[in-house]
């Protein structure tokens, strides 16, 4: 005979049902703790535990002094694959929109020049794009490109062909290097991504090679509340972790 579910688990199940059924869509505010206490005739501690666990699992976001809201489902992105953000968004049945913030020719300072194995002062193309999924900012892309690998980079229409698509076409991928880090958003990044200063970020930095040269260096910044990296690794026979 199964043991009856504790009250907090029943409350979590109820909230999840409302969300998965679409009755409570993303960004909608869920009933307050007082309302849930009265509706289910349970203690505030029970309600608090249910909401805390839903928050920890990324289903609900809680804003102090305001209330609890249905979180956007997290977007999964392959950790070590080089894929188009546009294709990822459209594969989920969502709409991709890109906002071009910067496109320019710059002089490479020492840190960037070293990453390209170029002399300091070399010319590089630089762009900053903001990618949206269904009107929600998902990725801030800052990219430096070697003109020797992609001479027409600044001439492309990023609304039609995003940088990943163009570079895949003109600078065939030979090798990649990835770095993943977590940061908190400063005021400038928070404003760009429509989040709060201090919110967590997931950042992927990627360097790619084509025809024996470093072709591109890109930094992809995402709100951690709606984005995560996933990966599957095959361990060869006899390998150890």
Description:
- The protein has 241 residues and is α+β, with helices and mostly antiparallel strands.
- It folds into 2 domains: 7-70, Winged helix-like DNA-binding domain superfamily/Winged helix DNA-binding domain (Arc Repressor Mutant, subunit A); 75-230, Chorismate lyase (3-Layer(aba) Sandwich).
- The protein is 27% helix and 34% strand.
- The protein is built from 7 helices and 10 strands.
- The strands form 3 sheets. A 6-stranded antiparallel beta sheet has the order 4-5-6-9-8-7.
- Strand 5 (123-133) and strand 6 form a beta hairpin.
- Helix 1 packs across helix 3 (44-56) and helix 2 packs across helix 3 (44-56).
- It is elongated, with a radius of gyration of 22 Å.
- The model is unreliable at 237-241 (pLDDT under 50).
Descriptive terms for the model:
alpha+beta, Arc Repressor Mutant, subunit A, Chorismate lyase, 7 helices
CATH class of the largest domain: Alpha Beta
Low-confidence stretches: 237-241
The shape, in one word, is: elongated
Q: What's the story with the biggest beta sheet?
A: 6 strands, antiparallel
What is the helical fraction, as a range of percent? Answer: 25-40%
Tally of strands: 10
Q: What's the helix-strand series? A: HHHEEEHEHEEHEHEEE
The count of domains is 2
Identify the strand order in the major beta sheet. 4-5-6-9-8-7
CA gyration radius, whole angstroms: 22 Å
Terminal Cα separation, in Å? 41 Å
Which CATH-level-2 architecture of the largest domain?
Answer: 3-Layer(aba) Sandwich
Classification by helices and strands: alpha+beta
Beta strand % = 25-35%
Mean pLDDT score, rounded?
A: 85
Q: Which fold name corresponds to the CATH topology of the largest domain?
A: Chorismate lyase
